[in-house]
Design a protein that fits this description.
- By secondary structure, this protein is of the alpha/beta class.
- It is built from four helices and six strands, in the order βαβαβαβαββ.
- The protein has two domains: 80 residues, no CATH class; 51 residues, no CATH class.
- 33% of the residues lie in helices and 21% in strands.
- A three-stranded parallel beta sheet has the order 1-2-3, sandwiched between helices. It has a three-stranded mixed beta sheet with strand order 4-5-6, with helices on one face.
- The longest helix has 15 residues.
- The N and C termini lie far apart (48 Å).
Length: 142
């Protein structure tokens, strides 16, 4: 989910601190329970850093994950988090094929970050499908 600050702007150009503070105090944040949420402003306005932080402090008790950015940036951040949390130890000294075709789109940064995380452990790293792989890395023979 993206929490857009645009509706909270005065005439879509400025953010009033008192208005924002009143909103965050009264808003029902439970709608974000367990969700991945990004704080963003879709209007071309200058938003102070503290405003994003203030919204994040109210989201944090409910949301599973909070970041800043639009939908694409949220997706990238979520995939980065998943890659960082992935236990790659079971893949030590194995040959890995990172699947190229997915039912859902995977952002490019996830492939790059996964490659970097796997490289120190694996015997080989390939991309594609088992019948048609692109070799990316082969560990030197010991």
């Amino acid at each position: 989910m993206v929490f857009d600050l645009k509706p909270l702007l005065w005439q879509e150009i400025a953010l009033r601190e008192d208005d924002l503070r009143a909103f965050v105090k009264d808003h029902d944040w439970s709608a974000y329970k367990g969700k991945f949420v990004s704080v963003h402003c879709s209007a071309d306005a200058i938003i102070p850093t503290w405003a994003y932080m203030l919204v994040a402090t109210h989201l944090q008790p409910y949301a599973a994950f909070v970041t800043q950015g639009d939908t694409d940036q949220l997706e990238r951040a979520v995939f980065t988090r998943f890659v960082q949390q992935l236990d790659v130890e079971p893949y030590r000294n194995t040959r890995i094929v990172v699947k190229g075709c997915n039912k859902f789109p995977v952002p490019l940064n996830a492939y790059v970050e996964l490659s970097a995380k796997l490289l120190p452990l694996v015997k080989s790293l390939m991309f594609g499908e088992p019948c048609s792989t692109v070799p990316l890395y082969k560990a030197p023979k010991a």
